[in-house]
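Slide 14.
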Amino acid sequence: MNYDVVIIGSGPGGYVCALRCAQLGMKTALIEKYSTLGGTCLNVGCIPSKALLDSSEHFHNAAHNFAKHGIEINSPKVNMQQMIARKNEVVSQTCDGVKYLMDKNKIDVYTGVGSFVSSTAVKVVDAEGKETILNTKNAVIATGSKPNFFPGMEPDKDRIITSTEMLNLEKVAENLIVIGGGVIGLELGSVHARLGANVNVIEFADTILPTMDSAVSKEMTKVLKKEGFKFNLGHRVQNVVNTGSGVKVTALNKKGEEVVFEGDYCLVAVGRKPYTEGLGLENAGIEMGERGMVAVNDHLQTNVAGIYAIGDVVRGAMLAHKAEEEGVYVAELMAGQKPHLNYNLIPGVVYTWPEAASVGKTEEELKAAGVNYKSGSFPIKALGRARASMDLMGMVKILADAETDEVLGVHMVSPRAADMIMEAVTAMEYRASAEDMSRICHPHPTYTEATKEAALAATGDRALHI
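Slide 15: predicted structure.
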């Protein structure tokens, strides 16, 4: 079989790349080792976690907020089996949608393990061991990532689990220990906290969400403590033991003292690592970069002509939307176009409630770079919309250049922050100033009014409603 491009991996990066390649007239093949398309994001990542987050939020509101709204019901009960079944239905429908798009765009899908035979040939081995050789002018590595862990916390998929197993846990983890205060740990911990679990987070850094702006970290700490989270910051995990009926985690605190935590389950959520095993990269002469990543240049090209890599296997944030943009970029580059990709403006989101979202530079990054900046913030609780919905926690913070007023970073904790952040991304893409953002008419009452008010504060004027 001869192709213009062969893509290994059908996650958001891979399948979107395949779609764009097909749209641009290339004969395209997509290889996926699992029986369903969509990769980690659709099967055991973004989509199923959001389904469970939404379900648990409905339960939490029914249990704690309905009465205040004048809605009287009997005490709600958790049916985890049904919650998981609904999640699986959402996943199935989404993955089926990707298969439909492949068929619609006449993309050949091969199910099996893909690996390089040479720089112009890729082998696919299916479940029965049948081999198929695909000859290609170009290839794209889009094999994604898998859960990471450190010595002493090796998952056993029983009591010591990763996000993959956590998504299928059919009972509430009443006493859940989470190793890692990043996005994955906080989101999945939040699911079970809303359902009544005690969640104990162990984090090596001095803050949760250590890569985000400190204002976001501080606000999210308040939010999650109110939800019942306990945080043990500056703790280094030594080992995790499955006791049969639960887990025991031993860690060292800031003073070097040994601390022991006991719970029903331990979620290991210390990030993800690139998945490149078995790809036969050496057969194509592809060079590796740092931390197991594939080395690429600024155009996502490897050292081998015609071979590209995108998504979690290359440098940068491990985000589905980053992988999608890279997939489109590579497709258009192969077609001879001049695509655009601004890594500084890839937003990050935490899908707790309220949500957290950021784009651009953090205040800590600006300080480290010696940038002269100004800052403006506005609390969500000052909004009429927030009082109406009883969502009073959160804030919006805008950082702007002190001389030019150009917006350099926007950070928020708010209901619908995942959607609100796009105003900032759009404005920053066109290099808007804080004054520009403050003079845009925002509908009332909405959460987005906090963005306008924060922009007013950043210009040096007073915010109007505080």
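Speaker note: The first strand starts at residue 2 and ends at 8.
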